[in-house]
């Protein structure tokens, strides 16, 4: 503890706060320091401790004083600690709460946790040693003798240096922002040229559109999402809003459902829809209410609830008989299947694959073997 000296707690020029943690008690070696619980602050140059109640009670120690540090796990009735081993105190050290100490290490006891992140950030600072590359403002003598106090150079020169650093940082951020904007404009230009090319070919009938152009154009359109999503601001609330939302979902989900075998879990639909809507996110409740209107609006989609409670959206043409026949054919062909194996065969999620197998079992076409190795389905020969 004799390595600490009194300070006002203010950061110096070129010094940056890294992390702070409340509820930290200091130990002088294995003994509790004669200080109350306070706030530990780690900067790029110093380790600072401030009393929680009396903010005038503030001490600091340069990070260059640290040799190495280690974690000490919490025990029964004991808080987790960081043990910091230190170099001997310098001869010209400023005054602090301790003038002498028989210990060469201190401990930080974390009463309110946070020691893991504090340890990680301290380790980073000790590795990078930023206090060497960006030294804090140098002390200058006051001209009142060798024992006189010292002041920090925070005059006009220091202020101008700080302003210049902020200006450079601002210029850097602006340059990076415009660099990203330039990349976006290049991509937009490519989209415009591609769309013009396709439009001209269709208009002038100068030849078929190549497959490569079709794939690129489709990927651009998919990345754009829904151009005019149905919202409460545009379509009101209540039943009318859910009806319009259901119609839009019917148009949007038909192609993804066909690609996924005619069925998708409602959670998967939720993620797909919100990704396409961009900033106009949809709540789970609104999605469910809209899906419930598929049948009444005579849309080609249906909301289905399995016996297990799993909700899915499926194409109307995706009949139950086809699902059962598919499950029976695959199980008969392989001899037996688990839900995971069936999912790999069909390219579906394990959840939906299991529901198909359970449905075939419910209709009497399959039987199960539930063992320590898992749930496996067999053709029902009984």
Compact overview of the structure:
With 382 residues, the protein is an alpha+beta fold. It is 42% helix and 23% strand.
Spell out the blueprint of helices and strands:
Blueprint: E1 5-6, E2 17-28, E3 31-32, E4 38-43, E5 46-51, E6 58-62, E7 66-72, E8 80-86, E9 105-110, H1 115-128, H2 130-133, E10 139-141, E11 150-152, H3 156-204, H4 211-224, H5 232-235, H6 239-259, E12 263-265, H7 266-277, H8 284-291, E13 301-305, E14 311-315, H9 320-334, E15 337-338, H10 339-346, H11 350-362, E16 366-371, E17 374-379
Antiparallel strand pairs: 1-6, 2-3, 2-4, 2-9, 4-5, 5-6, 7-8, 8-9, 10-11, 12-14, 13-14, 15-17, 16-17
Helix pairs in contact: 6-8, 9-11, 10-11
Task: Tell me what the structure shows.
- With 382 residues, the protein is an alpha+beta fold.
- It has four domains: 5-138, Pleckstrin-homology domain (PH domain)/Phosphotyrosine-binding domain (PTB) (PH-domain like); 160-224; 232-315, Winged helix-like DNA-binding domain superfamily/Winged helix DNA-binding domain (Arc Repressor Mutant, subunit A); 320-379, Arc Repressor Mutant, subunit A (Orthogonal Bundle), CATH 1.10.10.
- It is built from eleven helices and 17 strands.
- A hairpin with a 6-residue loop joins strand 5 (46-51) and strand 6 (58-62).
- It is elongated.
């Amino acid at each position: 503890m004799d390595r600490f000296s009194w300070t006002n707690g203010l950061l110096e020029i070129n010094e940056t706060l890294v992390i702070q943690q409340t509820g930290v008690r200091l130990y002088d070696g294995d003994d509790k320091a004669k200080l109350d619980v306070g706030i530990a602050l780690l900067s790029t140059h110093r380790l600072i401790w401030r009393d929680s109640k009396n903010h005038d009670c503030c001490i600091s120690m340069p990070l260059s004083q640290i040799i190495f540090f280690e974690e000490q796990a919490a025990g029964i009735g004991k808080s987790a600690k960081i043990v910091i081993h230190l170099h001997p105190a310098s001869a010209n050290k400023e005054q602090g709460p301790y003038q002498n100490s028989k210990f060469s290490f201190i401990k930080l006891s974390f009463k309110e946790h946070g020691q893991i992140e504090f340890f990680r950030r301290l380790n980073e600072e000790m590795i990078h040693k930023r206090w060497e590359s960006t030294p804090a403002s140098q002390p200058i003598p006051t001209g009142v003798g060798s024992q006189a106090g010292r002041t920090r150079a925070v005059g006009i020169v220091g202020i101008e240096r700080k302003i210049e650093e902020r200006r450079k940082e601002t210029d850097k951020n602006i340059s990076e922002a415009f660099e990203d904007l330039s990349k976006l404009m290049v991509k937009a230009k490519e989209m415009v040229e591609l769309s013009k090319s396709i439009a001209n070919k269709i208009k002038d009938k100068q030849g078929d559109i190549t497959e490569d152009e079709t794939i690129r154009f489709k990927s651009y359109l998919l990345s754009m999402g829904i151009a005019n999503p149905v919202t409460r601001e545009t379509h009101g609330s209540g039943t009318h809003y859910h009806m319009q939302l259901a119609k839009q979902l019917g148009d949007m989900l038909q192609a993804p459902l066909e690609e996924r075998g005619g069925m998708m879990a409602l959670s998967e639909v939720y993620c797909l829809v919100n990704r396409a809507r961009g900033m106009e996110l949809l709540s789970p409740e609104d999605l469910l209410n809209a899906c419930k209107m598929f049948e009444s609006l005579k849309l080609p989609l249906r909301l289905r609830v399995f016996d297990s409670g799993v909700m899915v959206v499926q194409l109307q043409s995706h009949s139950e008989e086809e699902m059962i026949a598919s499950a029976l054919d695959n199980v008969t062909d392989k001899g037996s299947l688990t839900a995971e194996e069936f999912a790999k065969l069909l390219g579906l999620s394990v959840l939906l694959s299991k529901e198909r197998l359970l449905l075939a079992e419910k209709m009497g076409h399959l039987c199960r073997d539930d063992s320590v190795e898992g749930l496996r389905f067999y053709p029902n020969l009984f």
